[in-house]
Structures are given as structure tokens and as C-alpha cells.
Amino acid sequence: MNHTTARAYRAVHWLSTRLQESLEEAKRRPDRGDISTTTVIIWVASITGAVLIAGTITIVIAKYNGKLNGL
Q1: Range of the structural domain that residue 23 is part of
Q2: How far is the CA of 6 from the CAs of 1, 11, 12, 20, 64, in angstroms?
Q3: What pLDDT does 43 receive?
Q4: Same domain (yes/no): 51, 63
Q5: How far is Cα 45 from Cα 34, in angstroms, rounded to an integer?
Q6: What is the pLDDT of residue 32?
Q7: What are the 10-residue block averages of pLDDT along the chain, 71 residues in total?
Q8: pTM
Q9: Do 66 and 37 have their domain in common?
Q10: What secondary structure, in 3-state letters, does the chain show?
Q11: Residues 41 and 64 occupy one common structural domain
Q12: Do 40 and 24 belong to one domain?
């Protein structure tokens, strides 16, 4: 139990230190990591397109599954 407590303490300490360092970095460089609207639109469109293509393929395979078994 003592070993688990020590590991948990180290993990919490590491996480809190990392969070504090990240917040200090954000204060020094407030423009860091901003994602443009265009990038978000491109990502959403790409993911939506991929889901639509996968859905269409699934529907076509389900529709013609019985006919494809004889090939």
C-alpha cells in the first residue's frame, strides 16, 4: 500500500508541476497554439467526408451482400 501511495504522490506532483509550467508558458506567450478557423473547417469537412464515404460503402455492401456471395 505504501508503494502505491508513493507512486500516486509522484504522479500527482508531476501532473501539477506540468500544469503549472504550461500555465506559465501560456502567460509568457499568449498567442501560442491558436488554431485558425480555416483549419477547423478543413478538419471537420475531412472527417465528415470520410464518414459519408464509409457509410455509403457499408450501405452498398449490405444491399448487394447476397448477390456478392456467388462471385
Answers
A1: 1-30
A2: 9, 9, 10, 21, 59
A3: 94
A4: yes
A5: 19
A6: 61
A7: 81 90 82 77 96 95 77 60
A8: 0.47
A9: yes
A10: CHHHHHHHHHHHHHHHHHHHHHHHHHHHCCCCCCCCHHHHHHHHHHHHHHHHHHHHHHHHHHHCHHHHCCC
A11: yes
A12: no
